[in-house]
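### Sample
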Amino acid sequence: PVTGRAADVLACAQTCFDAAIRLIRPGNRVSDVSGPLTAISECFQCTLVEGVMTHNMKQFVIDGNKCVLNRPSADQKVEDSFFEENEVYAIDIVVSTGEGKAKVLNEKQTAVFKRALNVEYSLKLKASRA
């Protein structure tokens, strides 16, 4: 069993996730999501980590154009729009007991790659092209 501040962080992240699921509905605004998440994290005496966003997803596109800032700041701004039907979102909630700023512990070379949709690939084999 988890106790203490670790339990607070886990409960805060779960509650924020549940609230985000209820707020990301057709007809609601993108700007309406961050306020309740901040209020929930303050109740647990935790903070949301800066720079973490919830993105909409499309086929072959992980990070769509619409995004929700979980913790708005002066450095980052997103376009305010409405959630529409048949949109899919990847909800990212990261909570901290500290200041809410991410630390880089060891800088290693990244191994995550993303396909560029605007680049045309010419594959040699017919089966590969299919």
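The mean pLDDT is 86. This sample (Proliferation-associated protein 1) is used throughout the tutorial notebook.
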